[in-house]
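Page 42, continued from yesterday. The earlier attempt failed because a stray header line got pasted into the input along with the sequence. Redoing it now with the clean sequence only.
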Amino acid sequence: MGFMSCRSIFTKHSAEQSMKVLGNLPREKLGFHRQLSSSMAHSSPVKLAYASYESAAGSSAAKAGAAPIIIIHGLFGSKNNWNSLSKAIHQRTNPVDARNHGDSPHTSESTYSDMMEDVVLLVKDLGIEKAVMVGHSMGGRVMMFLALNHPELVDKLVTIDISPVSSSSSLLSMTSIFEAMKNVTLEQNVTLSKARKTTDQQLSTTIKSTAVRQFLLTNLVEAEAGKYKWRVNLPVLEKNFKTHLTKFPATTSQFMGPTLFIGGSQSDYINVDDHDKIKKMFPAAKIQYISGAGHWVHSEKSQEFLDLITSFINEVQ
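This time it went through. C-alpha cells are written below.
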C-alpha cells in the first residue's frame, strides 16, 4: 500500500530455501533477524529481513558485473509482495521488509531518515558497493532520500508511483484504514483461513475495496497455535504516518544519477505539475506512466512494469 537508552538484542539467522535450478530459474536465499525485544527505544539502524534471488550461474540471465537490486515495498506491504517480479528480473535482487513491516524488527520510530539508515546498514552488511534502488510508494520515498543523501551507494534509482513534491489526496484514506485495523477483534483458536474470513468481514464495514482488504490481510499472521496478530506495528506506523510519512523531508540535495519514475496513468501520486521540481532534485530523471494502471502499478500491469524496469536497469549509461 502506498503508503507505513536500551540495547536491542537480535539473533541473526540465515536460511537457504533449496530449489531445483532449471535453466534461468532463480536461486532464492532468505536472510532475516528474529526479534527478541518488542521494540526499540531509539532510532538506531536495524537489520532488515530480506530475500535474495539470483539467476542460475552460467545462464544468460546472469549478468557479469551487474549491480544488485534492492527493493522496498509501500506502507502495509512486505518483501513477499515482490517475490514473483524479483524472480522475473533475472538479476541479483533483494526485496526487503522495512522496519515495522513483515519480518523486520519493530521499533519506536519509522521516519524516512530511519528507514534510509536501515538500507545503508543492509548494503554494508551484504558487502554491496552500489545497487539499483527500487521503491514503491513509501519505499520509493525511502530510496529517493537514500539517493539524495548517499549517492555513492546508488547505481540507479527507480521510484514507483510516488512523488517527493506533493502527496496524493488518497493518503487521507489511510486514517480510516488504521482505525479499521485497530478496531478488528481477532478471532482466536480457529484456523488461519477462518481468522482471515472473520477479519475480512469486520474490515468490509469501512473498507469497501476487496483488493485493499486482501492486501491488508497478508499482514494477519499466526503468532502461536491458534493465536493471531497484525505483524505490522500499527501504533508506531500510525503515529509516524501522521507526523512524518505524508511529506517528503525537506532537502536541497540533488541526485545526478540515472533515475526512473514510474507512475500509473489512473493514479494521482505523481502529478504532471510535480515534474519540474522532481527534475530539480533528480536532473537525469525520466518520468513514465503505464496506461491503465493505478497506484499498484507493478501488480496491476506487471508485464508492462517488468518491461519498463528491466529496460532501464539494463540500459548502458
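Notes: The chain is about 30% helix and 20% strand.
Reminder to self: strip header lines before submitting.
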